[in-house]
Amino acid sequence: MRFCNRPYDHFHITHNGKTYSCGWASKRMIGILSEQTVDEIQNGPDVQALRDSIEDQSFRYCRDTSCPYISNDSLPDLSPEDFRKEVDARLGKPPTNFNIAYDYTCNHACPSCRDGLFKTDPGYRDMMARMEEQLLPYLGNAKFLEASGNGDVFSSTYMMNMLSKVKPADKNCLITLETNGVLVKRNWEKVSHLEDYQLTVIVTPNSYERATYQELAGGFDNLDFTMDSLDFLCELRQAGRIKNFIITMVIQQANFREVPAFVETSLTRFKADRVQLRPMLPWFKLFHDKNFALRDLTNPKHPDHAEFVQVMNHPICQDPRVFHWSGKISA
After folding, report:
1. Range of the domain at 206
2. Residue 293 belongs to domain with CATH number
């Protein structure tokens, strides 16, 4: 029986406090943290529906292309007895794995994500404070903590303030910081205490070519700052101050031909532990894009699909350090 722990262990908070067990699953919300407590959400009927879908093995709320575990057939396959033990060990327990993505503050306006720079309303600060107050008591027992999938963690005063207070009891806690890289070097000291944990930094520059970078960042040319931060993170990784250094490329029309060069630079100059190649998926604003199929390079009907397949099968993309998010692309 295939087991996924997300409906039991995970707590993924997005814009306005909308909370999910898994950001990759179909949009089945389990609660709203800006209006409810963690306990109310974690023991509610919506999270139970997701658990039922794992226990009956239907996985009916899952999206294969979005989930790297399903796409790569890497979910653990357990005996019925071991499956039951995993479930029973989690019942009635608070979440231990947190994806804190409720702050949309970002210094870029990537067209694959948003239509412009995020602007807050008058109640935004109070909402951030309320959710931080709800979460902090649980983060001391966290086993996994990720921030911030919907904005840039280093450009947000809210995220920097919250992370400065995070000190899990377990030094083996896995902490992941996601960023576009622009402000990493400038703001690193604010989170340097997290080096005491199993710290991963994921940077998504999308291109090392200035014109492409600027287009995919929504018109912002911060490539020099990003490259400087990538060199800085490379130094931290070589010194053992961070435990894992990942570089991601969201592959789309403007940059797919650059994939081999991007991978080579990421592995040789920046010495990334892993390079993630993630085709553009219907996330964020694209979830409601009726014309997404026309932009989807994985769609066999896309005019550049054949060339895309050829690029994705370049020899350097077969390096074991390269991870194909939606599974390897074949002709």
Report:
1. 97-324
2. 3.20.20.70
Residue 32 lies in a domain: yes
Q: Residue 229: what are its φ and ψ, rounded to 5°? A: -70, -35
Least confident of 43-52, 175-184, 321-330: 321-330
Residues 155 and 212 in one domain: yes
168 and 25 together in one domain: no
Give pLDDT, residue 178.
Answer: 96
What residues have CB less than 8 Å from 191, skipping those under 6 apart? 160, 163, 164, 177
**Does residue 223 carry a pLDDT above 60?**
yes
- Reported in sequence order, the residue ranges of the chain that DSSP labels E, i.e. its strands, are 10-13, 18-20, 31-32, 97-100, 144-147, 174-179, 198-203, 244-251, 274-279, 322-324
Question: In this predicted model, what pLDDT tens digit does every residue of 78-135 receive, in sequence order?
Answer: 999 999 999 999 999 999 999 999 999 999 998 877 778 888 888 999 999 999 999 9
Considering the domain architecture, whether residues 122 and 200 belong to the same structural domain is answered as yes
If asked whether residues 46 and 105 sit together in one domain, one would say: no
| Within a domain: 124 | yes
222 Cβ contact list (under 8 Å, min separation 6): 107, 108, 180, 182
- On whether both 102 and 46 belong to a single domain, the answer is no
pLDDT (0 to 100) of residue 27: 64
Please, what is the angle between helix 157-165 and helix 124-139, to 10°?
Answer: 20
Closest CA relative to residue 285, chosen from 131, 138, 118, 81: 118
Q: Tell me, yes or no, whether 331 lies in a domain.
A: no
Residue 310 covered by a domain = yes
Q: Do 102 and 56 sit in the same domain of this protein?
A: no
Q: Tell me how far CA of residue 253 lies from CA of 18, 265, 296, in angstroms.
A: 31, 20, 8
Q: Is the C-alpha dihedral spanning 284, 53, 137, 201 positive or negative?
A: negative
Q: Taking all residues of the chain, what is their mean pLDDT, rounded to a whole number?
A: 93
User: What per-residue confidence (pLDDT) applies to 257?
Assistant: 98
Tell me the per-residue pLDDT of 307-322, one tens digit each, with 9 for 90 and over. 999 999 999 999 999 9
Residue 285 has what pLDDT?
52
